[in-house]
Design goal:
It contains 28 helices and 20 strands. Strand 18 and strand 19 form a beta hairpin. It is about 50% helix and about 15% strand. A six-stranded mixed β-sheet has the order 12-11-16-14-15-13. Strands 1-2-5-4-3 form a five-stranded mixed β-sheet. By secondary structure, the protein is an alpha+beta fold. It folds into six domains: about 170 residues, Hypothetical protein af1432; about 140 residues, Beta Polymerase, domain 2 (2-Layer Sandwich); about 90 residues, Ubiquitin-like (UB roll) (Roll); about 70 residues, no CATH class; about 80 residues, no CATH class; about 80 residues, Alpha-Beta Plaits (2-Layer Sandwich). Helix 5 packs across helix 7 and helix 16 runs parallel beside helix 21. The longest helix is centred in the N-terminal third of the chain and has 35 residues. It is globular and about 100 Å long.
């Protein structure tokens, strides 16, 4: 408690009310939490977050209940947003994942401080992961790498983004990280020596230009950034020219170009390696001059030149604008910087969960391009956007009637991707047939997808209702029930569904339109019907069976006792093979499912529905596929040997998949066709004889 208190007092002026709240929040801090709190608060202070944010974070971390009686509105708003769950967990559906991300974006669009706090909490959490990872930790790292790190980059929080990505690389690709670390350590002393020489020369330049109020600093490129360049551009470590960089920070833009001229006067610049991000800023607002020179050691060295304001934006991203504490009625700089975020939220209302997540990843991970209208208005799009995206950005009706476009005066089809600097003119026709479903594959922006989906959802509502009813009736018949018995008001009570519908017509239209899976609604209706008729259904099925089943096949399909009319299906979880002990399970509306008697899923089934089952001798000719997992040490010849041995013994391999696990072992999944139980024993013995094999087991056991 005392260490946290000293940290707060050192950086903030607390009034009496703040002191009371702080003491109350922190009265029960234990040692397990103290280290985490101090580390995160230090990071938040580095970001110059205000006292309200720090108090809200402390209350969130220590499970202290803030309310209107003990906290001001600003503290309470940050605290309530922090309490929103932003975690995507294993087993979530695409819709549930989308709901989590929407909550996060809504909270962030209200107050950008919330996402900064959340990102630093994530950074601390993953920094404490150790190998081997749990499944939950692995999923968290994937979320950080694919969603939260790109989000930090889009907000201009470059340092935070790099730290997140470095931990992801270290934990998800430990060998790559270790190899990079060893390679860079070998260059460490030589790099530092060159930085010292270059820094001295830059100091002389600044002195000559009388730029005394300037700063020189250096940095080494983050491991994750190096890995990206190696992977995406196919470069070797020796061909990455910005492994180290020296940064010069001055007061004005004019001084930036003055320093650049002097540097090029004493160092030879590398051709094609000069980038003017001052004249053409990056999409996240980053500005700087980058030049790569040939240093004294004959190696390339990157030099970055920027103003203090540019440096502040590079360090704090959009959050730098919040630091100015703008309180204007007009659109603030911060509002402008996160307008893309509000656009995603607005345009995602008609997107399914999967479409929203895909669109979000596209917007976060892809670069940006800038194109013009014929009148010179500049519009921003995600890289890969087409002229159809351009049409819908102007107006929905322009998009719906678009038949082509002119790019720089040349007629182009709707699928043409735009490039930076293009001048785009849309061609429309009132005779246009309007959007087609294929257009959803052409457009890249969430806004365009939303407007196309809206057309199908609203303009074609009557057609969607008819199609939805037809699809639902067919799904119900497939389950073995009569649509007339299930499509009644009792079971179509809209409050029973997890989706929000105001009328039955909306439900049917959503099915026909494709935003709601028909099987989800069908399964719910069947479940409700079965709850009302449980005894009747069970008795009817039991009358159709005997205490012992014999599985036979005739011209009509697989039947119980050859003539009972009940459909037989084999459980995919255990894939029973002829000769193994089996048992039957009477499924609702789906006949009898045959499991192995040692199937691990039997414990989840209702005992009263289990019945004895035996094989008919004629079923010996039946083939089935089984999955076996093989754990082995690394061997270049393993798959070749495995294939030769099994095929040589007369077995047919239907599929092979090999992966390296966290323990540096090779796990191979083999799909093999068999006739009977004895085949499994022979296959197991064959595989065990291969030298590098350490373990083998059948999937489902």
């Amino acid at each position: 408690m005392e260490e946290i208190k000293l940290l707060i007092i050192k950086n903030f002026n607390l009034d009496e009310k703040d002191k009371i709240l702080f003491n109350d929040i922190c009265k029960n801090v234990d040692d397990a939490k103290k280290e985490k709190i101090i580390k995160i608060i230090n990071n938040l202070i580095k970001f110059r977050l205000d006292l309200d944010s720090i108090l809200a974070y402390l209350a969130y971390e220590l499970n202290y209940n803030l309310n209107e009686n003990n906290a001001d509105d600003d503290i309470l708003n940050v605290y309530n947003s922090l309490m929103t769950n932003f975690k995507i967990t294993e087993g979530m559906s695409k819709q549930e994942q989308a709901d989590v991300l929407r909550k996060m974006f809504i909270a962030m669009s209200k107050d950008v401080r919330v996402i900064v706090i959340k990102l630093y909490i994530m950074l601390y959490d993953i920094s404490n992961y150790t190998l081997p990872l749990t499944q939950k930790q692995h999923q968290s790292l994937l979320d950080v790498r694919e969603i939260y790190a790109p989000l930090a980059e889009r907000l201009g929080l470059n340092s935070l983004k790099s730290e997140l990505e470095d931990y992801c690389l270290k934990l998800l690709n430990p060998k790559t990280y270790e190899n990079l670390s060893k390679s860079l350590m070998l260059q460490k002393d030589a790099n530092q020596k060159q930085i010292d020489i270059t820094t001295k020369k830059l100091q002389d330049i600044l002195k000559e230009l009388n730029l005394n109020d300037s700063t020189i600093m250096s940095r080494q490129k983050h491991f994750s950034s190096i890995y990206k360049k190696i992977k995406t551009k196919g470069l070797s470590l020796a061909n990455i020219y910005d492994l180290i960089a020296v940064r010069v920070v001055v007061n004005t833009v004019e001084e930036c170009y003055m320093v650049l001229g002097k540097i090029h006067g004493i160092y030879k610049p590398m051709e094609g390696r000069f980038k003017d991000y001052i004249a053409s800023p990056k999409p996240n607002g980053y500005q700087s001059l980058h030049t790569t020179i040939i240093a004294e050691n004959e190696r390339p060295l990157e030099i970055q030149i920027r103003t203090y304001e540019m440096h502040k934006l590079a360090e704090f991203g959009v959050f730098a604008h919040w630091l100015y504490k703008e309180k204007k009625n007009k659109l603030s700089e911060l509002d402008k910087k996160i307008s893309w975020l509000r656009e995603i939220m607005e345009s995602s209302k008609d997107l399914s969960g999967e479409e929203f997540i895909d669109t979000l990843r596209t917007n976060l991970c892809e670069g940006q391009i800038y194109v013009q209208t014929p009148k010179g208005k500049v519009l921003e799009f995600v890289e890969g956007a087409t002229v159809l995206d351009f049409a819908y950005s102007i107006h929905s009706e322009i998009g719906n009637t678009c038949v082509g476009a002119k790019i720089n005066g040349n007629i182009k089809p709707l699928s043409t991707k735009m490039k930076n600097g293009d001048i785009v003119e849309i061609i429309t026709s009132q005779n246009s047939k309007g959007p087609s479903k294929d257009w959803l594959k052409i457009v890249k922006t969430s806004s365009a997808k939303s407007k196309i989906n809206s057309y199908f959802k609203h303009e074609l509502k009557e057609e969607n209702i008819k199609l939805g009813i037809s699809m639902l009736e067919q799904a119900i018949k497939t389950k073995g029930y009569s649509p007339n018995k299930l499509l009644v008001d009792k079971y179509l009570n809209l409050e029973q569904f997890k989706y929000v519908f105001n009328t039955k017509e909306e439900l049917f239209a959503s099915i026909g339109y494709g935003s709601v899976p028909v099987n989800n609604i069908c399964n719910k209706l069947c479940q409700l019907y079965e709850q009302d008729h449980k005894d009747e259904i069970l008795n009817k099925q039991l009358k159709q069976t005997t205490n012992s089943l014999t599985i036979k096949r005739n011209k009509d399909g697989i039947l119980v006792d050859g003539d009972s009319g009940m459909l037989i299906r084999y459980a995919g979880c255990c894939s029973p093979v002829f000769g193994e002990n089996i048992i039957g399970y009477i499924s609702r509306g789906r006949g009898v499912t045959i499991h192995r008697q040692d199937c691990s899923n039997l414990k989840y089934l209702e005992n009263e529905r289990l019945i004895d089952a035996v094989w008919d001798d004629k079923m010996e000719s039946r083939t089935t596929s089984v999955l076996v997992k093989i754990v082995s040490s690394k061997s270049d010849k393993f798959l070749l040997t495995l294939t030769q041995e099994l095929v040589g013994a007369g077995y047919r391999i239907l599929g092979l998949d090999s992966k390296e696990n966290a323990q540096d072992k090779i796990v191979t999944t083999a799909k093999i066709e068999v006739h009977k139980q004895e085949d499994l024993t022979k296959i197991t013995n064959i595989i065990k004889e291969i030298k590098c094999v350490e373990d083998i087991f059948r999937v489902g056991q």
